[in-house]
Every structure is written in C-alpha cells, then in structure tokens.
Amino acid sequence: MQTDIFKELFPLFDAASVETLEWLLAEAVERDYPAGRAVLMEDAWGNAVYFILSGWVKVRFVRSQDAATLAVLAQGDFFGEMAILDESPRSTDVVAFTPVRVLTVPAQKFIQFLFKDPQLHHRMLQLMVRRLRKTNQRTQLRQQVPAVRIASVLTGLGESYGNKTEAGVEIFNLPVSDIADLSEVNPEDTNKVLEKLKDKGWIAVDSKRQVMTIANERQMAQLATFR
C-alpha cells in the first residue's frame, strides 16, 4: 500500500515521515475475512495491530457461551494496539459484520515504529486518552432514557464512520441485539425506539444493502445530547 493512501485512511499517521511509513508498510500483510468470521480470537491479542481498510467489525466480550458487543469499528480505525503493552489474558474477540480487509502489523514492529517518531508516539497516547474519555461518556449515558442512549450510539457511529449522501449519513445496519449491547438498553425497548425513529423519518433502513441512513442528522444529534 502506498504511504499517501495509508495516511488518507488513517489520519493519525499523517505526521509520520514517508521513510518511517514505508518501513512499517513493508512489514504489513493484507488479509480478507468474510462476514461472520472471527478476525481476532481472544487468545491472540497482543500479537499484532490490525488496521481496517474496509468493512465493519464488532469487539465482543466473551464469557462461557455468552457474548456482548463492546464496540463497533470500521474503515479508518484500528485495534490491538493497547494489548501490545498488556500481557494479561483477554476475554474479547473481534468478529466481522461485513466482508473485511485489514492490514496487520506484528506487535514488535509496531512498537519499533512508534519509537522511531516521538511525535507519533505522543499522538498515539492522545488517541488512547480519547478512547478512555469515550468510555467514561458511555458510563454517564447510563443515566439517560433509552432513546437518548440509542441515538448517541447511532450518531457516534455516523460521525466516526458514516458515509455522507444526499439522503443522510449511511452506516452499517447493526442487528438490534448489538445496538442493545452498545446502548445498554434491553432488546425489546431498543426495537421499540428504532421503530419510533423510523416512523418519525429520522432513520431509514435498507435491509438488502445492510445500510441504515441517519436521515435527520439535526434531530438525531439533538436527541443524542438531550439531558
């Protein structure tokens, strides 16, 4: 992959030198996964960093036969970087929602990459802080009514990974169970809220394309920030 394309997909690295990026990409391997396949198993965390070139994935917490969705990621994001410095056992895995293409970089090579460029190392720390802040915001949302929590999840996905069209912002049409996990609202209430949002015309679903369109961004954003 060319360095300019990589920087466009992953703005975090736009400050890295061309030489450093070329060195990193020379160590990277592209891999494809079909929908439903595990991209990263719970016992493989810490082995590599995964950059999402296309598609949508979910990070799940796994306990016995049960699994709950913790996060949804898509093109332009990456995962596995925090586990490199944490050798404790993991109980999470990553599963493809759609066909996914990722670029994998061995853990040790990624660490060397970070220390080649102090500015990049600093920006990575900033990213980790932002992710921690998002976790704290999600905890605060537990005090809100279901509609606010669900709108916050959908608008957040739209802001991070959405595709802007004339009809609105398109995101992957997540199953109700996954939206319920992310918003911490039970599936029955989640389904009721989604139906109300559809009736209002604030969201629209194209099942064939597996796309949800946030048709009324302003109203959804206002609902997501309602206190």
Automatic annotation (TrEMBL):
Protein keywords: DNA-binding, Transcription, Transcription regulation
Matches recorded under SMART domains: cNMP (SM00100)
Residues annotated as domain HTH crp-type: 144-218
Domain Cyclic nucleotide-binding positions: 12-131
Record carries keyword Hydrolase: no
CDD domains for this protein: CAP_ED
Alphabetical list of PANTHER family matching this protein: CRP FAMILY TRANSCRIPTIONAL REGULATORY PROTEIN (PTHR24567), HTH-TYPE TRANSCRIPTIONAL REGULATOR ARCR (PTHR24567:SF74)
Protein name as catalogued: Crp/Fnr family transcriptional regulator
Protein source organism: Pseudanabaena yagii GIHE-NHR1
